[in-house]
Each structure stands twice: as structure tokens, then as C-alpha cells.
Amino acid sequence: MNLSDARLALRDARRVAVLTGAGISAESGIPTFRDAQTGHWARFKPEDLASPDAYYRYPALVWEWYAGRYRDVMAATPNAGHELLARLEREKGDGYFLATQNVDGLHARAGSERLVELHGNLTTARCEVCAHIDALPAPADFVPPPVCSRCGGRMRPNIVWFSEFLPEQALEAASDAFTAADVALIIGTSGVVYPAAGLAFETLERGGTVIEINPDETDLTPRLSFSLRETASRGLAALMDG
Ligand SMILES: [Zn+2]
């Protein structure tokens, strides 16, 4: 398959499933977990902060870290890649599905609605008592920990941590969408991180087309229908407007 075939396949597809990873947010300047570990935070490993055990032992420290990540994402803005996917959703309507591994909330801010956030979201918190989810106050007004608006319980970051399972309903929705997809897009994710490979193969096994957009070759590349060696925004522009 070449670029013009891929473009036609996407244009004609009734059902489109998309998976995005860190690559699509890189162009918005979102620091990676490791990039953010400067100064005071440099002595911590990710698993010292992003695990249930860390939160159980040091809830104030873990919240302080996540409040900083929340400020970072709210200071960033969605980029052309996020906006092109929101447009693709408007074009495809009911036939569109987006799953993201990102926790920055930028897809929602760009207008995506048919969206599943597999690893949670930095802009919300989840009640430890009743599991209710609230949006965090604006960064300037936010003093952690947040308190549940429904039951008054303490809330934790709404993030899937090391050793925790991905949300089952979200995974099932993603699996259904990729199985049914005429075209799947795998954008800015290495394919090593579960569940990218599994979702791509569900589409391929049912005869669908899987297109990868990534500046680097990945473990998935040899198995897919077509790969664009581009950033997310340039690759999507080439597919949708080229
Ligand atoms: Zn509650």
C-alpha cells in the first residue's frame, strides 16, 4: 500500500479506530515523565511516585508531583494533530473511535468526544471511597488533595499507576472498535506498550487496514499495511489533506 492508497482507504472508511501515544503530545511540548523530573524531583524514579504503594505511604508527596504535571498540561495547548483527529471524528460521526495512552487531556480540549483514556487523565481526580470522578479546579486554585463533591472522601489522581490494571470497560470498547474498524490509525506509540499491538492485530485479522504514523520505525512497522515516517501532525495532514 502507498500513501495515495492509504489516503483513499481512510477517506472511504465507515469505521475508523485510532490509538495515540506520547508522540502526538510531544508537539505540544508536554514534558515526559522523565523530562519533568528535575530539581527536587530528580532523586525520584517514576515508580517512586506513580504507584499505589507510593501513594499509600506518601500521599502529599505524590499529589504534589501530580499537581505539577497538571500545571504543565494546562499550560500546554492541543496541536494540529489533536485538531485533525477532532475533525476526523466530525467527518466519520458514529463510525469513529479514539483511544489514547496519554493522560494530558489534550484530545478532549481539542474537541474529541468519542474518546477513551486508557491510562486516566491528569485533569481529574477519583474518590478513594466512592470512585466518583471530579475535574480538578483551575491550577491557580488547586490545593491538593481534592475532596469528593459527592461524599467528602479523599480523592487520588485519576491515573492508572504501575502495577494497576487498565480500566476494563475502556479496553473492551477499544477492542470492539478495532475489531470492527475498516481503517485503524496507530499514532505516536511504539507498539511495545500494551495494548497497541493487540489492537492493531484485531483490525488486521478482520481484513482491515492499519496505518502507522511515527517518526521512527517501531516493532509493529513490518506487520502493518502502511507506515508514515512523520510526526503526528504532519502524518495526519498528509493522510487527510495531502
Ligand atoms: Zn466520594
Topology overview:
Elements: H1 3-12, E1 16-20, H2 22-26, H3 46-49, H4 52-57, H5 59-75, H6 80-92, E2 96-100, H7 106-109, E3 115-117, E4 120-127, E5 133-135, E6 155-159, H8 168-180, E7 183-187, H9 196-205, E8 209-213, E9 226-228, H10 232-241
Parallel strand pairs: 1-2, 1-7, 2-3, 7-8, 8-9
Antiparallel strand pairs: 4-5, 4-6
Helix pairs in contact: 6-10, 8-9
The protein binds zinc ion.
Cofactor: Zn(2+)
InterPro entries: DHS-like_NAD/FAD-binding_dom, NAD-dep_sirtuin_deacylases, Sirtuin, Sirtuin_cat_small_dom_sf, Sirtuin_class_III, Ssirtuin_cat_dom
Binding site for NAD(+): 101-104, 188-190, 214-216, 232
Structural commentary:
It is a single chain. This protein has 242 residues and is α/β, with parallel strands linked by helices. It folds into 2 domains: 3-29 and 78-119 and 165-241, Rossmann fold; 31-75 and 123-159, SIR2/SIRT2 'Small Domain'. The chain contains 10 helices and 9 strands. It has a 6-stranded parallel β-sheet, sandwiched between helices. Strands 5-4-6 form a 3-stranded antiparallel β-sheet, covered by helices on one side. Strand 7, helix 9 (196-205) and strand 8 form a beta-alpha-beta unit. The longest helix has 17 residues, at 59-75. The protein is elongated and about 50 Å long. The two termini are 16 Å apart. The mean pLDDT is 94. The site of zinc ion has 8 residues, from loops. InterPro entries: DHS-like_NAD/FAD-binding_dom (IPR029035), NAD-dep_sirtuin_deacylases (IPR050134), Sirtuin (IPR003000), Sirtuin_cat_small_dom_sf (IPR026591), Sirtuin_class_III (IPR027546), Ssirtuin_cat_dom (IPR026590). Zn(2+) binds at residues 127, 130, 148, 151. It is found in: Cytoplasm. NAD(+) binds at residues 101-104, 188-190, 214-216, 232. Belongs to the sirtuin family. Class III subfamily.
